[in-house]
């Protein structure tokens, strides 16, 4: 039997979720017509190839609200907004953050940190780079590159650093003094247990 051709594709078993094979074998693949999902049997469970569950091979984007803190005095979001979304693929998490300062936002003091959507596994060391982003000074029409780093052994949050001339910690006054309508946005990737 030939399983490759230029005019045909591979067709897995087609069934419904209530009629999955009773005694599947490891590596068996099926397509469920009622869920429109492809599944693979790993020897002990059926794994979806794409759903928002954590026991799957690939995940969908899930929204979350990150926590924004500072090492000395915490900021207060006020009428600003913060949002995030993440996708987990096996033990890899991809996450995006978007923070807009409001007219009643208070900026706190110290190094800014943001929470992970899922706790990170212990890192290889300090200053582990997780990703990058941009801090926008809206009134001056300037943008500053920022990096997301693990500045300590904390696996529930990470800190920001701005890059370029005068590298330093991301704070309420660095790389510029944050004010109403300014934005911090970045993307990270990291490993979970």
Task: Report on this structure.
By secondary structure, the chain is an all-beta fold. The protein has 2 domains: 13-48, YefM-like fold (3-Layer(aba) Sandwich); 62-191, no CATH class. 0% of the residues lie in helices and 41% in strands. It is built from no helices and 14 strands. It has strands spanning 13-15, 29-32, 37-41, 46-48, 62-64, 68-70, 81-89, 92-100, 112-115, 128-137, 142-150, 157-162, 168-169, 183-191. Strands 5, 6, 7, 8, 9, 10, 11, 12, 13 and 14 form a 10-stranded antiparallel β-sheet that branches. A 4-stranded mixed β-sheet has the order 1-2-3-4, with no helix packed on it. The model is unreliable at 51-56 (pLDDT under 50).
Topology:
Blueprint: E1 13-15, E2 29-32, E3 37-41, E4 46-48, E5 62-64, E6 68-70, E7 81-89, E8 92-100, E9 112-115, E10 128-137, E11 142-150, E12 157-162, E13 168-169, E14 183-191
Parallel strand pairs: 1-2
Antiparallel strand pairs: 2-3, 3-4, 5-7, 6-9, 7-8, 8-14, 9-12, 10-11, 10-14, 11-12, 12-13
């Amino acid at each position: 039997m030939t399983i490759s051709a230029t005019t045909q594709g591979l067709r897995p078993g087609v069934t419904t979720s209530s009629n999955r094979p009773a005694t599947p074998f490891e590596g068996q693949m099926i397509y469920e017509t009622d869920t429109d999902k492809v599944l693979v049997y790993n020897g002990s469970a059926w794994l979806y190839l794409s759903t928002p569950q954590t026991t799957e091979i690939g995940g969908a984007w899930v929204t979350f609200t990150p926590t924004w803190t500072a090492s000395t005095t915490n900021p207060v979001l006020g009428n600003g907004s913060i949002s995030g979304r993440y996708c987990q693929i096996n033990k890899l998490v991809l996450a995006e953050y978007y923070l807009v300062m409001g007219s009643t936002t208070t900026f706190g003091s110290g190094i800014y940190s943001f929470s992970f959507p899922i706790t990170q596994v212990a890192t290889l060391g300090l200053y582990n780079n997780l990703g990058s982003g941009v801090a926008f000074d809206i009134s001056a029409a300037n943008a500053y590159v920022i990096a997301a780093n693990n500045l300590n052994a904390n696996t529930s949050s990470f800190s920001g650093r701005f890059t370029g001339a005068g590298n330093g910690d991301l704070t309420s006054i660095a790389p510029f003094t944050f004010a109403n309508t300014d934005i911090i946005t970045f993307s990270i990737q990291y490993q979970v247990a």
